[in-house]
């Protein structure tokens, strides 16, 4: 029925086609188009470290104060947290789709600041990291040593110090994670030896921290200082 109507009236059919084409062209120009649209809800991750604490201690001393303050922040859908026996705590807060990530980050940071006085001093000294996070991983990149002259530890350190910072500055990149072990020293303590010397673990930790310093040595040819601050 409609086909016969337009076949008998070709000029009217041409006008309708031109109007529809013009409307489609105008709509295509005004439609927002993005290469990577926000199809997943934004997430804010809060992480903290409590050296020497197990998962239960983290849940009672770190997770409970933080989650109590952050719970109910504007736009939040749900949150999930993990605590491990290595003293690492991570809280991921998920917001509704379309929420401004920057505003959500500010809101979570304000709630973290309110909970900071309730946290252990060791956690506060090491700092609490609050940053935007994404549930989907966009891409993976790997570093290799073609001739095998560099081991995995060196490659991880190179990626952390050189590659990670450059990728983080790319527009649109939310976070860059480096998978691998960093340079570190693990100290194993002998309980019997500590008891014989009447020393505690905190004293050993403080002694190691006191030796792990880089003091300023001044410059050659400079005027000697008497240790007093200049007036």
Helix and strand arrangement:
Layout: H1 2-8, H2 10-30, E1 43-49, H3 55-70, E2 76-83, E3 88-95, H4 101-115, H5 121-126, E4 129-133, H6 152-168, H7 191-196, H8 201-211
Antiparallel strand pairs: 1-3, 1-4, 2-3
Helix pairs in contact: 3-4
Average pLDDT, rounded to a whole number, is: 82
Biggest sheet record: 4 strands, antiparallel
Strand order, sheet with most strands:
2-3-1-4
Q: Classify the beta-strand content into a percent band.
A: 5-15%
Number of strands: 4
Radius of gyration, CA atoms, in whole angstroms: 29 Å
Order of helices and strands: HHEHEEHHEHHH
Helix run count: 8
Task: Please give the alpha-carbon distance between the first and last residues.
Answer: 99 Å
**Helix proportion of residues, in percent?**
40-55%
**Low-pLDDT residue spans:** none
Classification by helices and strands: alpha+beta
Can I get a quick summary?
With 231 residues, this protein is of the alpha+beta class.
Model description:
With 231 residues, this protein is α+β, with helices and mostly antiparallel strands. Helix content is 43%, strand content 12%. The N and C termini lie far apart (99 Å). The model has no long low-confidence stretch (mean pLDDT 82).
